[in-house]
Amino acid sequence: EEDLLNDVCKEVVDKWSESQIVDAKEEKEDEIQAITSMMEKQARIVVKPKEVSQEEKQRKAALLAQYANVTDEEEYPFPDPAQKPLSGSRVLSALNTPPALFRNTNVEDVLNARKLERELLRDEFQKKKEQDKLQREKDKLAKQERKEKEKKRTQKGERKR
After folding, report:
1. Which of 16, 25, 91, 140 has CB atoms 3.0–4.6 Å from 86's, for a disulfide?
2. How far apart are CA 79 and CA 112, in angstroms?
């Protein structure tokens, strides 16, 4: 009976190991199938090129040409309000250049911010100066009052003698 029991156990273990091998093969086949289906779906997706009208191409070319013409040393065609009125040659050069789409105000903003900061500091300095002056006057009056009190006290002491 023991031999029969061992044979049965061995047969069960063999069948179980065979089924495990078959399951692993099936899982690998399923994974391969899933990957191939995903690749096929991606291959079917076609990106359509964007259709650009002739007008948009011209607008883009004009913008690029404008940016290529303006350098750091050059000014935008907008007149600077701090400058003198346009002279004859400057008028012609301003008219010949294409109008800019925007005005670069970074420099003006920085200068205005510095100017505002200086004004605020000047105001604060004036206030502090006035406060110091008032404090000096108060101190002077307090010193004078102390002297007068001391004087009165000494006079009182002399009278008692």
Report:
1. 91
2. 18
SS (H, E, C) the chain: CHHHHHHHHHHHHHHHHHHHHHHHHHHHHHHHHHHHHHHHHHHHCCCCCCCCCHHHHHHHHHHHHHHHHCCCCCCCCCCCCCCCCCCHHHHHHHHHCCCCCCCCCHHHHHHHHHHHHHHHHHHHHHHHHHHHHHHHHHHHHHHHHHHHHHHHHHHHHHHHC
Closest by CA position to 69, among listed 27, 100, 107: 100
* Contact by Cβ (8 Å): 114, 86: no
Cα(64)–Cα(104) distance, integer angstroms: 17
Residues 6 or more apart whose CB falls under 8 angstroms from that of 90 comprise none
Q: What is the pLDDT of residues 44-59, one digit of tens each?
A: 776 677 788 888 888 8
Does pTM surpass 0.70?
Answer: no
For residue 85, the one-letter residue type is P
Nearest to 63 by CA among 96, 91, 90, 98: 98
